[in-house]
Amino acid sequence: MFPTFQVRISGMDPSAEYVLLMDFIPVDDKRYRYAFHNSSWLVAGRADVAAPSRMHFHPDSPAPGAQWMKQTVSFDTLKLTNNLLDDNGHMILNSMHRYQPRFHVVYVDPAPNSHLNAYKNFCSFSFPETRFMAVTAYQNHRITQLKIASNPFAKGFRTTDPQAW
Questions:
Q1: Separation of alpha carbons 114 and 139, rounded Å
Q2: What is the C-alpha to C-alpha distance for residues 2 and 39, in angstroms, rounded to an integer?
Q3: Less Cβ crowding at N or C end of the chain, within 10 Å?
Q4: pLDDT over 90 for what percent of the chain?
Q5: Residue 99 forms part of a structural domain
C-alpha cells in the first residue's frame, strides 16, 4: 500500500503482548470514475460486490507493548490487490471504490478462560484522513512519479536518466 500506513502507539502495558492488525471497509456504496477535464472524482454508479474481507496481521505480532511503543509502527509489508482469486494473502479491494483503513490492537490475554473476555480485549481505530480511492493506475502522473521514487517495490520502473524526471 502506498503511501504506507504508520502509527505511533502509547498507553500499552509494556510487558503485555499485543497483536496489531489492519483491515479496510468501504466508505460508501458507490463506484467512481476520474474526470480528467476538471480533475475530480465523479460517482459512476453503485458499488461492485464487496470483495472477501481479510485482516492483515503486522508481521511482528504478537509483541510486548514496550516494543510497539518504542518506535513508529509501519505496515510496509501490507499489499493490496483487486484480484478476487488472490491466494497470497493480499488485501482485496475493488478498484475505483473508496475505503477507510481500520487499525486494530488486540490484547493477548494469557488467562486460560480468555475467550470469556474476548469482546473487551481489543480496540479499533479509524482515521478519516487515511481514506483513499483504490485504483489500479494512478490518475495523476505526479503521484505515479512519487510512488516510483518512494516505493522500494517499484525499482523496475525507476530510470537513471534525469531528463525523464
A1: 47
A2: 21
A3: C
A4: 61
A5: yes
